[in-house]
Amino acid sequence: MGLFGFLKLPDINQGIQEFQASEHAVLLDVRDTQEYSSGHIPGAVNLPRDEIEKAGELIPDPETEIYTYCYSGRRSDLAAIALKRMGYRHVRNIGGIASYHGPIEK
Question: Which of 70, 91, 94, 97 is catalytic?
């Protein structure tokens, strides 16, 4: 890793490929409901960042693989940290939909 390698943002397109290859993973869109309704990645479930404490209702098994994303990657990073603190063991922030190149559904 180079001197500034820690500044590298996650590649959402690679993250989506990994999500799709995982059999029981959850793709979690942590944007607000209005943003989600305006267009989201197919298969994504919406749980706004400010409601992340409700994750247990949506994802009861702490062993579930969870891939988080938002618009830029910042909220999804905060959500991933919160989920890990809540006991989820396999959480990954994959970045922001702004860099996504695949299909969008409304």
Answer: 70
